[in-house]
Recover the amino acids of this structure.
């Protein structure tokens, strides 16, 4: 009996749940001001800023996670553990976000905040490379793969620089984190070349033409048998005689169906 491989739906649903819980924890950290005026909102700016950046970060991580997950044909133990490590790092984001908000962007909390982003990126890189290895050349070209890996390396380097800079200038380090997130706005990488798949459209067109002739030939055989009962040889696939026969046969069948419908009425 052949072994049945597990699909990725359950692992994807579990991952979505972890992302949802992380965002929910951050929402619960949002406390309303004590006084009913606009001035009471001003002291909450660190909370609002850290929440927006962290929400944006988790949204980008989920977007790229969702984009790459479709390239896995089935679940493997390696994929499960890579995904679990990645989700574990993401689960640390609410903690660092709350610390940054409570301390109003102090040096050490921003350092830890950037360090969490570094850990998430370090866990994301193996996940991304595993997905790229599972994708076919028709889906992702070689140039796109190189670009994706370079993008991950540049983002990781920016997070590391932000982590070190935050010890001297927390605001600058926090700004570098925001700049690094802009790189991952679009996971699809449109416009990146496909030089190694340039011949695929020709092959696909040829295959489609061949399949079209085979389908037409099958229609001719089935229609002749059903409508005429004739044993005459079928015209060669793709010829004008065959196309004429198909049009006449389909028209005749359509006319008979209409007559039967009118008789029933």
């Amino acid at each position: 009996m052949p072994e049945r491989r597990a699909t990725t739906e359950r692992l994807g649903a579990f991952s979505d749940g972890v992302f949802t819980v992380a965002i929910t924890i951050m929402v619960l950290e949002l406390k309303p001001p004590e006084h009913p005026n606009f001035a009471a909102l001003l002291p909450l700016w660190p909370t609002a800023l850290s929440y927006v950046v962290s929400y944006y970060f988790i949204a980008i991580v989920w977007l790229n996670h969702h984009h790459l997950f479709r390239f896995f044909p089935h679940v493997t133990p390696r994929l499960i553990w890579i995904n679990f490590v990645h989700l574990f790092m993401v689960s640390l984001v609410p903690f660092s976000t709350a610390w940054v908000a409570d301390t109003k962007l102090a040096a050490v909390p921003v350092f830890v905040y950037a360090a969490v982003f570094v850990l998430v990126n370090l866990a994301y890189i193996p996940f991304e490379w595993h997905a790229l290895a599972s994708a076919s050349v028709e889906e992702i070209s070689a140039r796109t793969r190189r670009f994706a890996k370079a993008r991950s390396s540049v983002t990781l380097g920016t997070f590391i620089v932000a982590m070190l800079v935050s010890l001297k200038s927390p605001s600058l380090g926090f700004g570098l984190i925001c700049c690094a997130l802009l790189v991952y706005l679009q996971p699809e990488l449109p416009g990146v070349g496909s030089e190694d798949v340039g011949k695929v459209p020709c092959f696909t067109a040829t295959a489609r033409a061949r399949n079209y002739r085979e389908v037409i030939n099958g229609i001719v055989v089935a229609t002749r048998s059903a409508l005429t009962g004739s044993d005459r040889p079928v015209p060669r696939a793709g010829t004008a005689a065959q196309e004429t026969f198909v049009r006449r046969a389909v028209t005749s069948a359509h006319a008979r169906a209409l007559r039967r419908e009118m008789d029933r009425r």
